[in-house]
Specification:
Elements: H1 9-20, E1 24-26, E2 34-39, E3 45-49, E4 58-61, H2 64-72, E5 77-80, E6 101-104, H3 109-119
Antiparallel strand pairs: 1-2, 2-3, 3-4, 4-6, 5-6
Length: about 120
């Protein structure tokens, strides 16, 4: 028996935005617990963890420029070094199985939009 997706209104609002955002398309490898999106112009992938009740983690591939931009925008994140164990659902996303990642924690839809803007550059 699989566990149900917890209720999280902020995460759901972010997913609603991503579903209709003109710069994003759905990434075909999403799972029950991870929704995937790809930026149309840059092909960068975002993986939204739906299995968290109190946060809205968005995984992206590590990039020093992106990390510095997140710092400038005061968007919290955690670094996942190459090879660090991670949610097995991320293995479906190109590069997310073993490469270094940033796990961002947007606190609002506005911060999620800022992440899209950062990745669009």
């Amino acid at each position: 028996m699989t566990k149900p997706i917890p209720t999280n209104p902020t995460r759901d609002a972010i997913l609603d935005l991503f579903d209709v955002h003109p710069k994003l398309e759905t990434y075909s490898e999403e799972t029950k617990y991870i929704s995937g999106f790809k930026l149309k112009e840059t092909n960068k992938i975002l993986a939204v963890d739906k299995n968290i009740k109190s946060k809205q983690p968005i995984f992206i591939l590590y990039n020093e420029t992106v990390k510095l931009a997140l710092d400038r925008e005061s968007i919290s994140y955690k670094e996942y070094p190459k090879g660090k164990s991670r949610n097995s659902n991320l293995h479906k996303f190109s590069g997310f199985e073993k490469d270094a990642l940033l796990r961002t924690y947007p606190q609002s839809v506005s911060e999620a939009e800022t992440i899209i803007a950062i990745l669009s550059k």
